[in-house]
Amino acid sequence: MKKTFLLLFCLISFTGYSQILKRPIPDKLVVLTFDDAPASHYSVVAPLLKAYGFGATFFVCEFPPNFSDSTKYMNWRQIRALDQMGFEVANHTRSHAHVNELNRQQTTAQLAYIEDKCDSLGIPIPKSFAYPAYDISKTCFEVLEEKGYDFARAGGKRAYDPFKDHPYLLPSWATKEDNKDEIMAALQEAKAGKIVILTIHGVPDIEHPWVNTPPSLFSGYLDYLKDNHYHVISLSDLAQYIDPDEAKNSIAIDTSKPYKN
């Protein structure tokens, strides 16, 4: 009887997990995400990605106080152009707000601003979100669910395991000018069903030099990904492999893991 129960439990668990995947995760699957809408995402990053044929997600916000300075940040015309180029434009709150400091009404308003702005410009309403400063909150999880978001990216410096990581807590590594060895090692973890997600800020980042990725370093990463036959996609493209609703139903939100970069 005990063996029968254990077998039944394992079968039910396997069935639930198997439904998370729409198809097997290939080795060398990498997601590129870009945060904060610096000007270099339009002038440097997008043309390079197009040349390499890579997908990507751009998490946009109106970063205070200098969002109106076009030498530092993209304007909405340029953000719309990213969508027209085929990239995913996604939600990073209106003002790069730390969601752990917001109540429900404030969180909803921060997300709704970007949604409404996208909708007014003919950009698809975002279904992907990234936590500013990697700060997470239970309230934000609830708002994301209410709004029908599929995925939300945090930090944590580890690979994404679709069977263990909730879709609202996708881990990532962040590139900087001084952590090339860390990023190269991270790329080797895109295997055995795990996916590597990179967080990239400005290329270069004039406003926030502590998260700067020099263009030459960025180009080197793209060369490596291309030369070694990585499949580079946007965050929303994960839905080709993963059913986010099944994953949300099957995997508990675990905030005990590290989520900072």
Automatic annotation (TrEMBL):
<keyword id="KW-0732">Signal</keyword>
<dbReference type="InterPro" id="IPR051398">
    <property type="entry name" value="Polysacch_Deacetylase"/>
</dbReference>
<protein>
    <submittedName>
        <fullName>Polysaccharide deacetylase family protein</fullName>
    </submittedName>
</protein>
<dbReference type="GO" id="GO:0005975">
    <property type="term" value="P:carbohydrate metabolic process"/>
</dbReference>
<dbReference type="GO" id="GO:0005576">
    <property type="term" value="C:extracellular region"/>
</dbReference>
<dbReference type="GO" id="GO:0016810">
    <property type="term" value="F:hydrolase activity, acting on carbon-nitrogen (but not peptide) bonds"/>
</dbReference>
<feature type="domain" description="NodB homology">
    <location>
        <begin position="28"/>
        <end position="233"/>
    </location>
</feature>
<dbReference type="Pfam" id="PF01522">
    <property type="entry name" value="Polysacc_deac_1"/>
</dbReference>
<dbReference type="InterPro" id="IPR002509">
    <property type="entry name" value="NODB_dom"/>
</dbReference>
<dbReference type="InterPro" id="IPR011330">
    <property type="entry name" value="Glyco_hydro/deAcase_b/a-brl"/>
</dbReference>
